[in-house]
Fold each of these.
Amino acid sequence: MFQENSQVLWNKHQGGSYYKIGIGCRKEYSAAQPGQFVMLRAGRCAPRSALPQLLRRPFSIHRLIFSGDDVQGIELLYKIVGPCTRYLSECKQGDIIDVLGPLGNSFRVPDKSRRIFMAAGGVGVAPLVFLADILQKKKADLRKCTVFIGGRTADDLLCRDDFSDKGMSVQVSTEDGKAGEKGLITVPLESAIRQQPPDIIYACGPSGMLRSVAGIAEKYAVPCRISVETLMACGMGACLGCALKMKNNEGRYLHACADGPVFDAASLVF
């Protein structure tokens, strides 16, 4: 884990309220794994009239940025939802951001090629692209992998080409029906599991989606690893503000930053 003032490499609008930002990092980030995150304080690139950002905000590592064989930065995918992310969207190349990371645990990546399902909602797709990159490096047969991406509208369907370009099958759905199948992404996910269960499911997205995915995985006895999206104040387990209740263990809680953010779906009460 490192704390450093890092330089913005780029900040690109992806459509709607979504952006991708590249941030320089030290070479030790080459050891970062899918599911890990960083805590950002973007105050130094915020408007002068804005109130200072007192606490950092968590962002999943979306990708590693390489120069040859060396890691030179990390890429983050984010959505404007409040003052912090609005300030972040105004960052320019060369601006400085306070970065703490890499933090948390990661998805367990299988050594052998397996039939894998991934389920993502909105910016929950961020760590799954990183996971797909690692699977490709491990020479997994990505034709056996299916990615389910859901959102409220077509603007929320992110990174489809990042998966399809690797040979992965991609299914999308929107709540308004303007793109893909109309409805929640858990519907085609369950239908595909019913036809032929995968060896494992990886998921990241809103808590309601994760609750449904966990229930489906339990119903069909499929192992499921989820990355939870939750607010964090410190990212290191000091504030205890990101508590998650454990299943079948009365009174005990896990913490998304210190024990996660990746968990066995069967271990949590949603």
Note: The longest helix spans residues 207-219.
Amino acid sequence: MDSFKLKVFAITVMLIDHVGVVLVYPTNHYWLYLACRAIGRLAFPIFAFLIVEGLRHSRDVKKYLKRLLAFALISEIPFDLAFYKFDFNINAISDLKRLFRDPVHANDVFHRIFLHQNVFFTLFLGLLLIYLFELVERKYSKNDFMSLVINNLIDGLLTVAICAIAIFLRTDYDIAGILIIVAFYLFHDSKALMTISVLMISATLLCNFTQFKQFGNWLSIVSILEPLAIIPIALYNGKKGKSMRYLFYAFYPVHLLCLFLVASILML
């Protein structure tokens, strides 16, 4: 499986996940909703793996970072519309008219905007972190003990800082997403260690076993399925395949906007 096919697989399971979130109501169709969310758990680890691959093969990492940030900003409005439109009963025209003349309304609008940021922000921060790892390693590349200590200390501080930013911005997957990218970077050549890392991160940061024991809510532990993403990753042959870079970038905001429109029509 080349990079193109792996990306197609990832965006397909992501689409299934988002169809479940936007169009399927868990109160009415719980098991269908759960199935969509379960399938969607395979998407992020694959995107994390591809971010690491992108760093290893990119000719210009800074341009790569700029693309991710640009599409993070482009995707934010479709993301908010798709996932929060009906929760907040958003009326875009009304928002624009009242945004600057009604302080209370403006506060509500900004609350929605900063409630949760799309996954491109997480991928951007993750790539930035591992890129900084490489810069630090180049500067302290000596094999002596002190250089190793300084390298690890700086890497640790950078990781804490980037995770703090992810929490502050409330990015999708926040700390867990950053740590998965770091784990894939550190254990890139060991599928076993990548699997164990994703399992540990999912079980400790993404799953709520207490809620599952108390209420039997399977959604609270569905993230335990994320390590299954290692199966398609293991089939990756290291080849690029077809080059359709911007198709994959554009798919994210476009499919969210389409889901929002479909949901709006269904609500009529």
Note: Residues 95 and 101 are 10 Å apart (CA to CA).
Amino acid sequence: MQQKMTAKFGISLSNRAVLFNWATMDDLIQAAKTAEESGYFDSVWVGDNLISKPRVESIVTLSAIASHTRRVKLGTICMASFPLRHPVLLAIQWASLDVLSQGRTVLAVCNGGSESFGPQFATELQAMGVQSRERVGRVIEGIKILRRLWSEERVTHEGKFYQFTDVELLPKPLQQPMPILIAANPKPGQADEATVERILRRVARHGDGWQTDATPVDTFRDRFGRIQEYAAELGRDPEQLDSCLHLYVNINDDVELAYRESLEFLAEYYGTGAITDERAKLWLAIGPPEAVIEKIQAYIDVGCKTPVLRFVSPDLEGQLQRCIAEVLPAFHGNRMPEVATG
């Protein structure tokens, strides 16, 4: 029998669902504790936006979770506000979180929403004083600044978007180097092949891994393979790059009910009509445990190292417990993993 590829699982907690009463902050913190105590989850992730999709702020949320956990890594999925945040302030905040969590953070960043995505994104960009066309440049420049501030004693920077002289940033993060993933998912019909290649090369050059969602299995295989190829061309070790997939999960023997609950969550989260059936089906792993296992395994088989599961049901605790009991053992030889104590 062919040996299954292994992966490290994450749980994605919706700090936006707090605003539409699908969960409370206490629910999220308890879910993080349950996930860690199970031994099956290696990481906890929360989403990030500012005005465009309001939520309890990501770094504040991760700080609360850090104080209630000891082992799991803590990350953003993804920091859509990255091009809106000044990198010096963000460097201090994220380094502080890394110190607070004893070196457990993973920063995943992305371009955030274009003004063409809707009026709420245009309002957010205007309020933060950022032009939509600047987002990519701010992400690249911001990553470079963070890496320097976190590793060098003093930094002077003269860039297109940011300028400062002789800055000593303290505290430094405990992790050296700090992992930074880049989230990117160019959609069919919205990005030509040249644009896709440019995006994948950006991940290979500037990121420590790739984060994505709603990506067909074959597309995931192709894109991560290309990112690794481009990284090798740059003299980087492609095996060291992470590949992180965000999946929305509803475990239910009644597939129709699972799909209805999932669509209700997506409508609350993104707005009614914002997510097409085609995109929803790519995003979702729903139905009985064996169907959820099959979908997750398909991505692991093509190179996904970090499947991150978000439960799209009003019963977060019930979903998590069922996942622990009936889904995740399939990826651990049907036995409970060892849990670190002390």
Note: The chain has one domain: 9-331.
Amino acid sequence: MYYLRNIIQEHVLKIAIITTVKHNIGDDFVREGILYLLDSIKELSSVELIHKHIPISAVHGLEKIRSYRVSKALDPLARLLGSKNRVNNADVLIQSGAPVYWCHPDGPHCADNEWFDPLIRKRFLPDRRGRKFLNIAGGSCQRYHSDGSEIDSCPACSAYIREFFDACDLTILRDKLAQTMLKKAGREASVLPCTSIFARDRLGLNALNGEYIVLNFMENGGHFTFGQNIDANLWRSQFKQIAAVAKKHGRVIIACHTPDEENLASLLVPEYERFLVPDDHVEFMKFYSRAIFGIVNRVHAGFVMASFGKPVVVIGNDSRALMIENLNLPSIFVGDVEHIGVESIINKALSRVSSYSDEIEAIRSRAKSEYTLAIGNALEV
């Protein structure tokens, strides 16, 4: 404790963030929000990023490696040589957003993730020196209707979740299912809206008048199906219907977070405009600030639009989609679109265009107060 207290008194705070780098703009949104909150508490002297899928990126000079096999082979050697690295140089280490708890009968399992062992077990914990480790905006990644009971029959994931929690000085989760899974493992933490709602503040971006309706399409409604009975062709057809109905209410643009999404959109709905600026989360945020409303699969597209006061509906196929409910916005399982109806889904967003900005500002204000209090206490500021 003396180490960190002395660092804080000297107004020097070196941060290392376990995140992704040029990989997923949703992670960029989450990280910008965390940095805004930290800046609100204490001036930062430096921020270093570690690409969690390639743990060797923690080592200075090796951050451009993008092969996990190479990373896994080099990491023991780098530790043996005592290579300078971002984990051991940091005063505060932060796990930034992303799913942290997942457990599926036939795999994958969060206990097998690629970053915890090399970064936390083998680097941070043996050389802790009173330094802080925060897990901020971690979430779940289960089937959409999961109740978290998968944890009950997986001793490895339960043990890992406890170990991860016990290594942290602060855990704040971003969805209720993650909270349930943690509780099943014998620990407890609070839930707050994902920090991506503060990314706009970090970058000084303001909400602008709505110019277009934003849609986003992912195959099957999300990254993974996890064995759920999802009709991919039906979802494609329904998305075309959503675009056609949305067009009645204004200009429609398809937001594509990756080149693959852009290629898919160009085949599926070639008549609509598409937006893609690869790996540039700032340009995406500016784009989302001018939305009228959104219907999206990408949950962080929804969070950023919502942060600007733009109502959204998230249609998804795993528990990440449920995060949006923390912003008083609806989440819909992709398999329920037919039952609910396209017109009804559009109206869920359209009906709140004029009123949602006040609602989100109250949510953001309350969440900021709770985040800054919890983080400040953890850092003893």
Note: The radius of gyration is 21 Å.
